[in-house]
Amino acid sequence: MGFHIPKTHPRYESLKLREKIIEGYKSGITAIQGLIAHGRGECFDYLIGEKTIPPAIKAMRAAIAAMLLAKHPVISVNGNVAALVPDGIVKLAKVLNAKLEVNLFYRTKERELKIKELLERCGADEVLGVDDATATIPELFSERRRVSPRGIYIADVVLVPLEDGDRTEALRKMGKTVIAIDLNPLSRTSRAASITIVDNVVRAVPKMIELAKEMKSVSKDELRVIVDSYDNDEVLREALKYIASRLMELASKGVVLSFKT
Ligand code: PTJ
Predict the structure, then answer these.
(1) CA-to-CA distance for 134 and 98, rounded, in angstroms?
(2) Which percentage of the chain shows pLDDT scores above 70?
(3) Which of 17, 45, 122, 259 could covalently link to 90 via disulfide, CB atoms 3.0 to 4.6 Å apart?
(4) Percent helix / strand / coil, the chain, rounded to 5
(5) By three-state DSSP, how is residue 137 classified?
(6) Whose CA is nearest to atom 18 of ligand 1?
(7) What is the pLDDT of residue 173?
(8) Does residue 181's CB lie within 6 angstroms of at least one atom of ligand 1?
(9) 17: Cβ below 6 Å to ligand 1?
(10) What digits encode the pLDDT tens for the residues 229-261?
(11) pLDDT category, 1, cuts 50, 70, 90?
(12) Any atom of ligand 1 within 6 Å of the Cβ of 178
């Protein structure tokens, strides 16, 4: 087991996530580069106040509407997502009737298999992308180009939680709707995606499960209105404005902690 963190520690939740990522690395699920990616995420989470912000909720509603309307919705899973929210991602795929596909940037057979087995232990009926990655995403030269012909290749909507930018652009060029979950509103992924949820995957995934359950009874016409009226540029600008005004407020109020002595 990982390092013991006392529940009373003021940064308990954040430290617990770090331990999950470290455990993911030690058990062969997460790439070592995933630790660095996590640290970058932590920094942006500080900036948004470590809570789900209104533009993220707007994006989540559009994302769920798009997934519910999709013919072939697929959720792509990497080493960080598998370490942080394995149960949640399987549950989300189930409520949305979406396929799960392992697709790694730092691709190794061992990690692919371990992630597949973990998702199966969490209740996944089928995990694509491991033995069947025989199709190729055009104009993509990373290891992520190899995908399942029954999954990402034919998907009309792909959810890519926590991503590196090149694949998002390649998938968009193939005409797919790409939904990203990325704490950094300025990343290439965030700016290239059709819908960007600026939130931590550990908060976004449970919230999306809740929304998916709620929105399942919404008519197709209403879902279409939600998708068609969505503007990702506006949502990213709202996220940046949220961070800017939060920082301005902190800068004017003061940030020093006070202690009783
Ligand atoms: O498992 P693999 O081999 O597919 O590799 C996965 C990583 C994440 C290592 C790989 O895709 C990568 O290098 O990604 P980047 O380019 O570092 O981008 C990761 C993005 O996710 C950054 O913009 C981070 O801010 C963001 N991020 C990190 N942790 C979280 C996050 N976004 C949401 N929730 C998080 N917990």
Answers:
(1) 20
(2) 99
(3) 122
(4) 55, 10, 35
(5) coil
(6) 164
(7) 94
(8) yes
(9) no
(10) 999 999 999 999 999 999 999 999 989 988 888
(11) low
(12) no
Closest CA to 150 of 170, 127, 166, 119: 127
Chain Cα centroid distance, residue 93: 13
More confident residue, 254 or 36: 36
Torsion of the alpha carbons at 235, 241, 247 and 252, rounded to the nearest 10: -150
- CA–centroid distance, 106 to ligand 1, in Å, is 12
Is residue 99 in contact with ligand 1, taking CB distance under 6 Å? no
Write down the number of H helices and E strands in the chain: 11, 8
Tell me phi and psi for residue 180, to 5 degrees: -110, 145
pLDDT of residue 248: 97
Q: How many CB atoms lie within 10 A of CB 238?
A: 19
**Which CATH number describes the domain made up of 54-239?**
3.40.50.12640
Contact of 241 with 55, CB cutoff 8 Å: no
Pocket-testing residue among 47, 140, 162, 190, ligand 1, by greatest number of atoms within 8 A of Cβ: 162
User: Which residues have C-beta within 8 Å of that of residue 184, sequence separation ≥ 6?
Assistant: 40, 41, 44, 190, 198
> Residue whose CA is closest, atom 8 of ligand 1?
34
